[in-house]
Design a protein that fits this description.
Among the domains are: 59 residues, 434 Repressor (Amino-terminal Domain) (Orthogonal Bundle); 104 residues, Serine Threonine Protein Phosphatase 5, Tetratricopeptide repeat (Alpha Horseshoe). Helix 8 packs antiparallel against helix 9, helix 9 packs antiparallel against helix 10 and helix 11 packs antiparallel against helix 12. The protein is 73% helix and 0% strand. The chain contains 16 helices and no strands. The chain is mainly alpha-helical.
Length: 290
């Protein structure tokens, strides 16, 4: 019987097994020996087609999760990037129609179905085909389903962030705060997700400020600044310093501390050529910049 030799198979198998809270013995039960699972995960043994199929059925994932893993991930990423650009350009109807057709035609690719389902629901909401409560329910159902099937937190972050954003837009701040706090509790082991963590910290501080809790907001802001500096990521550092200065104003901190944060924000906006943000500072906070 043909065998697969990709080292990605062992890595994917181990991650999925842990995601389902299965021991090697649990996964092997009725399929193969525990020792064989151990060898596959360590990369010292190559599974047959039949064995890989049986394991994929038990883990409730398509066999393509194990095969050509890099190519599959790249394909998902390209699709996601294309849909995201369309969404940012407010091409909601175009995405909605494409997603509707793709979801109908896909049968064994749950990950791609989940991606299209996400865009389908948020576009349906933006087009007023469903209300925000229905959208939140659908996104939560999709989150629950995805969590059961996959190890990567990327889509879970995307789904839960969308739910929190909907709550925020409708001024349901306490509900939004709860979702953001759940996100912060997720494990951000990979540097790939650090930017997402920083964004969540920033958004959580916004919710807390709307709830008139500046002291709590400041803790999240300072945490976000520390993460930005630690990983040398400036994408949200300017916004965080601006948020910090505004929060310090609410807390009636010293003028020098407030001015220091606004000046850092202005410098970062200038470096990153974020002219709109620079103009806001010049229009509203010029006295702190002098």
């Amino acid at each position: 019987m043909d065998q697969f030799t990709s080292p990605q198979i062992g890595l994917a198998l181990r991650r999925l097994r842990k995601k389902h809270n299965l021991t090697q013995k649990d996964l092997a039960n009725g399929i193969c020996s525990q020792a064989e699972i151990s060898k596959i995960e360590s990369g010292t043994h190559s599974p047959t087609v039949d064995l890989l199929f049986a394991l994929s059925r038990r883990l409730q994932v398509p066999i393509t999760v194990f095969l050509n893993q890099n190519q599959y991930i790249d394909s998902i990423g390209i699709t996601d990037e294309r849909l995201l650009i369309l969404f940012q350009n407010q091409e909601y109807e175009l995405i909605y129609k494409e997603a509707k057709e793709i979801i109908k035609s896909l049968k064994n690719d749950e990950e791609l179905t989940s991606l299209y389902s996400y865009y389908f629901q948020i576009c349906a909401y933006r087009m007023n085909k469903i209300d925000f409560r229905t959208c939140i329910v659908e996104l939560q159902l999709l989150t629950d389903k995805y969590t059961k099937l996959y190890y990567s937190p990327k889509m879970v972050l995307r789904l839960k962030s969308a739910i929190a954003t909907l709550y925020y837009e409708k001024k349901h701040y306490l509900h939004g705060l709860k979702v953001y706090e759940e996100l912060i509790d997720l494990n951000f082991e990979s540097e790939e997700f650090i930017v997402e963590k920083i964004r969540i910290l920033y958004n959580t501080s916004k919710v807390l400020l709307d709830l008139k809790r500046p002291s709590d907001a400041l803790k999240y802001i300072e945490n976000g600044i520390v993460e930005c500096l630690r990983f040398k990521d400036m994408s949200l550092l300017g916004q965080l310093y601006y948020q910090k200065a505004y929060t310090l104003e609410l807390l009636k901190s010293s003028a020098s501390d407030i001015s220091d944060s606004y000046k850092k924000a202005y410098l970062l906006f200038d470096i990153l050529k974020m002219n709109e943000y620079k103009q806001i500072l010049l229009d509203k906070k010029k006295s702190f910049l002098i």
